[in-house]
Structure formats: structure tokens, C-alpha cells
User: Which sequence fits this backbone?
């Protein structure tokens, strides 16, 4: 691959009191500063979430006339999909410097609805919404119930994922739960139930936040200020939109997305030093680890072979509605060795796995630095 | 959306109309014989457009379930039991389980109906005491 990430940054996180537009531009500005570039260097933009035409809106905000844009909407996995499309656009010569960005002020704006928003034109409005699932949470609850049943596990196994996320958050000053005490399994089990078997502490945060990354050709990256983080591979899979559609809840799109990314990079799970996995709920992590080949089915909650979600993840760091861009930011920082107390020593290859909607879209990106 | 505002379209209208008579329909492909739900224009197994409706037996098993403790719509009584039920014919429905506080995966269930204000009905399921596969 011949494309590299040359800049990465978070915008303000948590409860910011800022507008989404402010946070979006802030993240872009910081990522470009990190790269030593400015908006006038940018000729490609990918973003979603803000307005009907998100990339167009951001171009206007930055005062640029990009040669390539993408506002594909696929939930929180789309930022990993943007990496693939950006790499292809740069390799094809359609543009040379791409910014991938996202921001939300959903906590400050109190804009999050636990029931989600169904489009009346979709079949789900007829056949699923009348039963009032929490969207997306009840889907992850159905998944978790089937997961625990299939592998004869219980809620405490899932709780261990939340406990580990909190431990990392306590090493990350940017994390929403940074200053809070460690979690215990009993804390997680004793928290109010939301949609069984998932309690409040099995579910991701609702925060403001977002960020941006900057990509360009590996050739140009050599002349920029940061150590280039190469895009080694990518793969994706889109599987369903309705909760009733998957025949087997446990056969997620992560298997296909991961296999495609590994094949493109000529790497496998044994080559990965650190993983960032989209954790909308505790169950997301073990299932993805299994489907991505890190361990056998049913062994994901006990697996500790690779450091996962070193920020504290959606569970304890930040969840601004769509986490995908922040998974990429952390992977880049880990590979550049900038992560302080939570740094994975000698990390050279990172796996980022985005999951969007109700497990609807999966996208895997492999990133690496030269030895 | 309130209960008498559940949308319907020309592909799904026969399915909704049958609920008024307490009949749960499935679509079956006349080319490959696969059953599917909800109704679609094309067969998801082979792509054919020639699909017919047939009545389901109304028996199935719980693929998974979740007891919802926070109402998706303010004012709804909680908890309620949301489930994926795999019908004997194969297709899976998102539905509610009634008459059981402690459901379990793979539990046999049987069709029941919940009336809607406009005369249509919603399929829901309850434990099936007569099922030969009842496991506990
Ligand atoms: Zn067919």
C-alpha cells in the first residue's frame, strides 16, 4: 500500500457545551496541525453526521473546493470504510490529501433517543418498530443473550470487558471516566438493567466528541513532520438492517471484513500488536475478537493476548454516537508511541475494527509503521 | 408513531390484511421454494419476483430475547420482553413474548395476537406447553 496517515487528533470530548460544527472544525484543525498541513492543502474530505450533505458542508466551513468527497452513511464503522475509499482515491490520483472527520455534541445537546429514529419508509418501521426495541441497544442485548446461551457463559464474563475498559480509561487523561475509581465485576452486575443481559455499565457512554485523521501518499508522507502510519489493508462487510434479518446472530460481518483486510495486508491476527474494536456494548468486544481470528468462539471474554481499546473505548473513554474515527486516532497514536501510561510497548501493527448500526456494517483497517 | 399509524405499502398490504383474520402469512418463492419474512418484491434466496403468500403454522422457538427495562417510547409500561422467534418454516420475526417472565433461548413458543386500534393485529408469542420439544 502506498498511502499513510500523517495527522490525527481528537476534538474536545465529554460534555463540551460546544456546537457540533465547532467540534468538527476543531478536530480538523488539530489533525492538520498535527500533520503540519493547512486546509488549503486538503483536496479530499470524508465525513458524516452533520447536515444533509455532510462533506459539502465541511468543505464550505473550511473554505475549500475538494476534488473528492465521501459522505457514505453506514453508522460508526463508516470511518474505517472512508480509509479504504480515501486510499483508493489517493492511489488513483483523484486527490492527494484527505481529511476524515466526525464530531457530535449529543451529550450537551441531549439529542440522543434511546428508541432510535426509524424511517417510516423502511420495512423495520412496519415489522420491528411496533415492538419498541431500544435502537441499537436491544440488538446488542439479543446478541449478548444468544452469545451467553451458546457458550454457557454468564453476565460476569461480559462484565470483565467493562472492567478492563475502565482500567485503560484510568490511564487516559482524555477519557470520560479517567478520574473515576476502578470498576469491579460486581459494580457492572449491580448497575441498573437496560435491556437484559446488558446493564448500564455494559453499554457505551453518551458523550460529545469526535476527531479527524489526515491521509496522503506514502511518498509525500516522508516529507511531513510525523512518522507515517501506513494503511496496510482494509476490508468490509454489510450484512443487515433489521434485527430479525441475520439467520445466526453470532455470525457477524467481522469475519468477512477481517479476512478481507488480512488478505489485502498479507497479515494475520498473530501480527497485530494492538486492537481498537468498536464497543457499543461489552459483548461487541469478545465476539469481534473471535470473528477476527484472535481466539476461538466463546473464548473472547477471557482473551487477553492483545491489548484492546487502550483509550477505554466507548464504554469508558468517549462515545459521540459514532466512535469509528476515534478508533483510528488511537491506533495512529499507539503506532507513533505517543500514548504515555497506556502505550503498548513496541506496537508496530494495529487493527481497527468499526461496527455500525445494529452490527449492520463491519469494517477492518490494518495500520503499521516500519520496523 | 402510534399503534394505528404503523405504515403499510403495496407489497406488505396482504400480510397486514391477513392479521385482521388472525392469519400469520409468510412469503414463499415459487421458483426455489424458500420462505421469507417480511414480504419483499424479490426472493432473497434466488432473486425471483414470483412470490406467493401462505399461512404459517404459528409455532417456533426463541432464537434470543431481551427484557427491556427502559421504554423506547416514553409512557410505555416496562419491562417488556422483545424476542427473535424462529418460525417452524424458517424465517425469523422480531416480536414480543407474553405470558413468561423468564424466557430462555431455544424455548418453544406459539403465536398469539395483540389487537391494534385500526383492526389490524400484531403477532406476539407465548410459551407453547404442548410442544413436543418443550425443554424445561
Ligand atoms: Zn427464490
Assistant:
Amino acid at each position: 500500500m502506498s498511502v499513510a496517515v500523517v495527522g490525527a487528533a481528537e476534538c474536545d470530548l465529554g460534555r463540551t457545551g460546544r456546537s457540533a460544527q465547532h467540534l468538527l472544525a476543531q478536530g480538523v484543525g488539530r489533525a492538520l496541525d498535527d500533520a503540519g498541513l493547512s486546509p488549503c492543502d486538503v483536496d479530499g474530505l470524508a465525513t458524516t453526521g452533520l447536515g444533509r450533505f455532510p462533506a459539502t458542508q465541511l468543505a464550505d466551513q473550511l473554505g475549500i473546493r475538494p476534488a473528492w468527497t465521501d459522505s457514505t452513511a453506514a453508522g460508526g464503522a463508516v470511518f474505517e470504510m472512508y480509509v479504504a475509499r480515501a486510499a483508493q482515491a489517493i492511489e488513483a490520483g483523484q486527490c492527494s490529501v484527505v481529511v476524515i472527520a466526525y464530531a457530535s455534541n449529543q451529550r450537551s445537546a441531549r439529542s440522543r433517543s434511546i428508541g432510535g429514529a426509524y424511517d417510516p419508509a423502511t420495512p423495520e418501521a412496519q415489522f420491528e418498530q411496533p415492538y419498541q426495541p431500544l435502537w441499537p441497544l436491544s440488538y446488542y442485548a439479543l446478541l449478548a443473550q444468544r452469545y451467553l446461551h451458546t457458550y454457557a457463559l454468564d453476565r460476569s464474563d461480559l462484565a470483565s470487558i467493562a472492567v478492563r475498559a475502565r482500567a485503560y480509561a484510568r490511564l487516559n487523561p482524555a477519557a470520560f471516566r479517567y478520574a473515576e475509581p476502578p470498576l469491579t465485576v460486581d459494580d457492572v452486575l449491580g448497575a441498573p438493567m437496560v435491556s437484559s443481559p446488558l446493564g448500564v455499565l455494559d453499554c457505551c457512554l453518551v458523550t460529545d466528541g469526535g476527531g479527524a485523521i489526515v491521509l496522503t501518499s506514502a511518498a509525500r508522507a516522508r516529507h511531513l513532520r510525523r512518522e507515517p502510519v501506513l494503511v496496510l489493508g482494509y476490508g468490509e462487510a454489510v450484512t443487515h438492517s433489521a434485527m430479525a434479518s441475520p439467520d445466526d446472530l453470532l455470525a457477524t460481518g467481522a469475519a468477512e471484513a477481517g479476512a478481507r483486510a488480512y488478505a489485502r495486508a498479507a497479515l494475520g491476527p498473530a501480527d497485530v500488536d494492538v486492537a481498537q474494536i468498536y464497543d457499543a456494548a461489552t459483548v461487541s468486544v469478545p465476539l469481534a475478537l473471535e470473528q477476527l481470528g484472535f481466539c476461538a468462539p466463546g473464548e473472547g471474554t477471557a482473551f487477553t493476548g492483545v491489548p484492546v481499546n487502550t483509550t477505554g473505548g466507548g464504554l469508558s473513554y468517549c462515545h459521540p454516537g459514532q466512535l469509528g474515527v476515534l478508533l483510528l486516532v488511537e491506533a495512529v497514536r499507539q503506532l507513533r508511541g505517543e500514548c504515555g501510561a497506556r502505550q503498548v510497548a513496541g506496537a508496530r501493527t494495529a487493527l481497527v475494527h468499526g461496527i455500525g448500526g445494529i452490527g449492520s456494517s463491519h469494517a477492518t483497517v490494518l495500520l503499521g509503521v516500519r520496523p | 408513531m402510534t399503534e394505528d399509524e404503523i405504515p403499510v405499502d403495496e407489497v406488505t398490504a396482504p400480510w397486514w390484511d391477513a392479521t385482521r383474520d388472525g392469519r400469520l402469512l409468510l412469503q414463499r418463492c415459487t421458483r426455489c421454494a424458500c420462505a421469507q419474512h417480511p414480504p419483499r418484491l424479490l426472493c432473497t434466496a434466488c432473486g425471483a419476483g414470483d412470490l406467493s403468500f401462505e399461512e404459517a403454522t404459528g409455532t417456533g422457538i426463541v432464537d434470543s430475547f431481551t427484557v427491556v427495562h427502559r421504554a423506547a417510547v416514553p409512557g410505555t409500561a416496562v419491562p417488556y420482553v422483545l424476542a427473535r422467534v424462529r418460525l417452524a418454516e424458517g424465517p425469523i420475526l422480531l416480536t414480543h413474548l407474553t405470558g413468561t417472565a423468564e424466557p430462555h433461548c431455544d424455548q418453544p413458543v406459539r403465536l398469539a395476537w395483540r389487537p391494534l386500534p385500526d383492526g389490524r393485529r400484531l403477532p406476539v408469542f407465548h410459551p407453547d406447553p404442548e410442544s413436543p420439544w418443550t425443554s424445561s
Q: What stands out?
A: Chain A has a mean pLDDT of 97. The first strand of chain A starts at residue 3 and ends at 10. Chain A touches chain B through 39 residues (CB under 8 Å).
